[in-house]
Amino acid sequence: MIASSNCASLILVLTPVEGIRSATFTMKLTRSRQFHLLASFALLILGLFVLRNRFAINVVSNSELREQIGPLPSPKSVVVTSNKTDEVERITLIVDALPHLGVKGGATLKNGFEWVTPERSTKPVLATMTPADAEIGFYNYIQSLQIKCPEKTRIGRKEDGGWDACISGPFKISQPCLVYSIGMGGEWSFDHMITDKYKCLDMAYDPTLGKGDHKPKELLWFYNTGLGIANVVNSRNWKLRTFGSLLEENGHSNRTIDILKIDIEYSEWESLEAIFVERSLRNVKQLMVEFHTMEVHEGKTSTPRDFAYYFQILRGIDRLGFKQWHYLMTPTGGYTSKHTARKLPCCANVYFVNTAYLA
């Protein structure tokens, strides 16, 4: 916006701002009128800019997303001030601020549940470890059970695509039940059984299928949306939402979620980071996640910092009262570790129950 120095006339030039076309106006005005008009136009442009940023969805690439958002908003007792805060340091701060929820290790459990290892006996995975020690520590952690579920069942097919569920005590699946199934990759056996047999309302999400939002069958809703660390559209034109945002959009923020299943090809890590900040797991009974490493995601080699980051996410789940009762290493798509020469699986399906329901 430019004003001429001529007291008898005013030339206003509006440069393009967020799609507003430029225009030039010449007006005969007094100095007082000039000032008020300048102020009015400035407020108008500022208002349009604010509105645009309030309602627009940014389009960014996955690599740009981290740089643009910087550290996530932290829980109340943590303030992260640097946009270049180390990833491991940031998630450690976030996890350290999470409350200890659920049943304390060793306390009496209801409904026939038993402790296996109340407190995980494995050592923490640190970024300062050797690559081999960090890898071994990570895989030892996800294969250590904490709690025993008296009864389980398979939902979906026996092969990859089906999932196990604890069905004892408060985790018995009975109507009315609500399930969030995030990521299926075209394999619908879990979703069909959870709706046909158990009559649960199933909210299914996957932006990779190229299908629009629709209702495939009674009780099953499909959304062309994925789970992410922020509410954005990425470079693949996939709409992403945090879990808390999905709950809010569906009016489920205060509903009990019987099962939250996440299988989103490595994006589970940062999505869980956002979940910690939102505290959006509080009403979830069972959490099922397929965890992936960098080797499967980008064909790169996980570093000790990567393993330390994975470990902190798992520690956050534990801190919120979710205890691991089961795991299954997926045999297909494995790789040979460059750190230990071991044959490792592509991914691990890890199962947790919220012990707040066992108190």
Describe this structure in words.
The protein has helices spanning 31-55, 62-69, 87-96, 131-142, 189-196, 243-249, 268-278, 294-298, 304-319; strands spanning 10-14, 23-27, 59-60, 114-115, 147-148, 152-155, 163-166, 178-182, 201-205, 214-217, 220-223, 225-227, 232-234, 239-241, 257-262, 284-292, 322-330, 335-336, 343-344, 347-354. It is α/β, with parallel strands linked by helices. The protein has an eight-stranded mixed beta sheet, sandwiched between helices. Strands 3-13-14-12 form a four-stranded mixed beta sheet. It is globular. It starts with 9 loop residues before the first strand and ends in a 5-residue tail after the last strand.
User: Helical residue percent?
Assistant: 25-40%
Structural class: alpha/beta
User: Can you count the beta strands?
Assistant: 20
Which of globular, elongated, flat, extended, rod-shaped describes the shape? globular
Low-confidence region ranges: 1-32, 43-84
Q: How many separate helices?
A: 9
Strand order of the largest sheet: 10-11-9-8-15-16-20-17
N- to C-terminal separation? 64 Å
Tell me the quaternary state.
Answer: single chain
Classify the beta-strand content into a percent band: 15-25%
> Main beta sheet, described?
8 strands, mixed
* Integer-rounded radius of gyration: 25 Å
**SSE string, helix = H, strand = E?**
EEHEHHEHEEEEHEEEEEEHEHEHHEEEE
